[in-house]
Known about the structure:
By secondary structure, the chain is α/β, with parallel strands linked by helices. It has helices spanning 13-16, 19-24, 62-74, 104-115, 147-163, 178-188, 209-214, 236-248, 262-272, 282-293, 299-312, 323-331, and strands spanning 35-42, 48-50, 58-60, 79-85, 120-125, 138-139, 145-146, 168-171, 195-202, 252-256, 276-280, 317-320.
Amino acid sequence: MTFDATFPSRRMRRMRRDNFSRILMQEHALLPGDLIYPVFVMDGKTKASAISSMPGINRLNIDGLLNMAETAVNLSIPALALFPFIDPTLKTEDASEAWNPDGLIPKIVRKLKSSFPDLGIITDVALDPYTTHGQDGLIDAFGHIDNESTVEALIRQALVQAQNGSDMVAPSDMMDGRIGAIRLALDTEKHYQTRILAYSAKYASAFYGPFREAIGSATSLRGNKKTYQMDPANGNEALWEAGLDVHEGADMLMIKPGMPYLDILWRIKQNFLMPTAIYQVSGEYAMIKAAAERGMISEKECVMEVLTGFKRAGADAILTYYALDAARWLKS
Ligand code: PBG
């Protein structure tokens, strides 16, 4: 590229002077159709229960969720991503509640799909809501997260989700080979249309703290997740991870968290040209919320700036706890 014209014949401010020319030169625009709303679901009669580290976000029971789903549909949000708060008495070392066909997630998916057939339902494939130790995988005799037995468990979990109507299964566990194994299992059972959203580059991040409170795995989590989630210091490794997921049959790739990993989003999108999502995680939400509550920043403007930044960096879809707010702000 050459920039031979220079000041004063080249004036960058000319196009910025008026609203009409600012709009004409705008390269990216956020749409409600870009947003996926992650929601925390729970059993029981209480409609909503607050999450202290995520002001404004509640765990919802089925009634609360059906009301919220209607709001999401009216705001043109294409999909919800469900995360369960599992009754502590149902948690075990082997996470078997994760593939109980009458468990919380299968029940909720059936209900949502019958009430809102066109609303996309994405279900999380990972064991952390179901294990007593809060890890995403199963622990072997030596205390390590065992890849092969975990993948077997994830297959069972993904199959139950697909059998009960999940549109898209989203493995967030970071085990090796799980995308291919789940694709094969889905195809063997003729769930050809069940999509896979692969958490390809999921980093071992401190920004997941509020989420762990939300699903009730924070107090039980033993150790950290560094033997399966990625080191924030690494970028090239994320391309290997994404390439493997593409080969194994992922329909869409995801990068997580969001704001500290825009370079990873850009590189993955440029390299694979796949449908690509980014997850603005719980700690990123909490950070903006807390600063806004203290009057330090303008919440709406900061949120819209971050979400637009995700699009500029290559995101086709954005998981954000601000989805409802952002869709409302876009409408007004
Ligand atoms: C775990 C999972 C996590 C999130 C989504 N799925 C947390 C973790 O890996 O401990 C985090 C999402 C968020 O922070 O909003 N399977």
